[in-house]
Amino acid sequence: MAQVTVTLDANLAIDAMMLSGTKNPQDAVEVILLDYLARARRTESRTGEAADGRRAAQQRPTAQEG
Fold first, then answer.
1. What pLDDT score was predicted for residue 66?
2. How far is it, in rounded angstroms, from Cα 16 to Cα 26?
3. 32: Cβ–Cβ under 8 A, 6 or more apart, which residues?
């Protein structure tokens, strides 16, 4: 797998480590990103993607005047 280097603010890295329960900032970011992606996939499977047309709102009939 390809490696990417990302620079983070020290406070952000510490917060990520505390939230994920890891002792390494790289592991913390990896765990949080994997969780974020898993949640996104679960949400898409439950609601469908925006492009699939199932989420498009149907037009409501306008109120008749007169």
1. 64
2. 9
3. 16, 19, 20
Query: What does pTM read for this prediction?
Result: 0.57
Task: Please tell me the predicted confidence (pLDDT) of residue 45.
Answer: 67
Using CA atoms, how far apart are residues 45 and 30, in angstroms rounded to an integer?
23
Structure tokens belonging to residue 40: 């996104």
Ranges of each domain in the chain: 10-47
Residue 24 contacts residue 17 (beta carbons within 8 Å): yes
For the chain, residues with pLDDT lower than 70 are 43-62, 66
- For tokens 């994997």, what's the residue? 34
Closest by CA to 25, choosing from 54, 5, 55, 42, is: 5
DSSP state at residue 55: T
Residue 58 CA neighbour count, 13 Å, CB half: 3
